[in-house]
Every structure is written in structure tokens, then in C-alpha cells.
Design a protein that fits this description.
The protein is of the alpha/beta class. The chain has one domain (23-96). The chain has 3 helices and 4 strands, in the order αβαβββα.
């Protein structure tokens, strides 16, 4: 995937219509990067999307070292290799640090 080698992206990496598999694409990219020893932070702005992304990754790689950081779920798993997080929760955590 050429996209994995482009880290100077200033806009969206993936643009796909509703229901076309963005969470699966995100999960595949995250699993590949984590498998290469990298850490991954995937951000979403709603709890529903955080759960959807986490579920897709779990289906793709049930053994993935994945954590969720979302105040609405009471989870704060920032030490995992792949973290799926709420933008608002991370912003609040940064302000309180």
C-alpha cells in the first residue's frame, strides 16, 4: 500500500462513501503498521465510530494489541500498540496533564 509510505499527508488519507468499508481499511492499515512495529493512533469524533473501528480491527486481527481511549466507555488504554481514541477525550487529557 503506497499510502503507508506517505506520512506528510495534509488532508484525508481515504475518502470513501458511507458503508463502503472505511473501518475495514483503517483496521487493515493499523494491523499492517502494528505488525511492522509501529504504534498507531486512530481518532474518531463519536463513540459509535470508535466502537465500529475497534470491532473491525478485532475481526481482522483478534490478537491485535488494541486499546480504546474514550471517556464515554470508561476505557483509557493508551499503552496499546494500536489506540482508537476520541478526539475530545485526548484533548481533555492533554489539558489536564
Amino acid at each position: 500500500m503506497a499510502i503507508l509510505h506517505s506520512f506528510a499527508v495534509t488532508g484525508p488519507w481515504v475518502s470513501m462513501p458511507t458503508g463502503s468499508g472505511k473501518s475495514i481499511v483503517l483496521g487493515a492499515i493499523a494491523a499492517k503498521l502494528a505488525g511492522d512495529g509501529k504504534r498507531v493512533l486512530a481518532l474518531a469524533h463519536r463513540g459509535e465510530l470508535i466502537n465500529q473501528n475497534a470491532g473491525a480491527l478485532t475481526r481482522l486481527d483478534p490478537l491485535a494489541d488494541m486499546g480504546v481511549c474514550h471517556a464515554g466507555s470508561g476505557r483509557d488504554d493508551l499503552e496499546s500498540r494500536i489506540v482508537i481514541a476520541s478526539t475530545a477525550t485526548l484533548k481533555l487529557a492533554a489539558l489536564c496533564a
